[in-house]
Amino acid sequence: VLPELLQKPHRLKIWSAGCSNGAEPYSVAIILQELNVLNRAT
Fold first, then answer.
1. In which element (H, E) is residue 23 found?
2. How far apart are CA 28 and CA 23, in angstroms?
């Protein structure tokens, strides 16, 4: 799903609600790093 969303011209916003220990956003960050898109993050 993320590769298709990242090809669109709009800005992608990611929100992780209710994360207790930070594992969920960390996992998303790993996926974004593997897709080589963290350098575009603001």
1. helix 23-34
2. 9
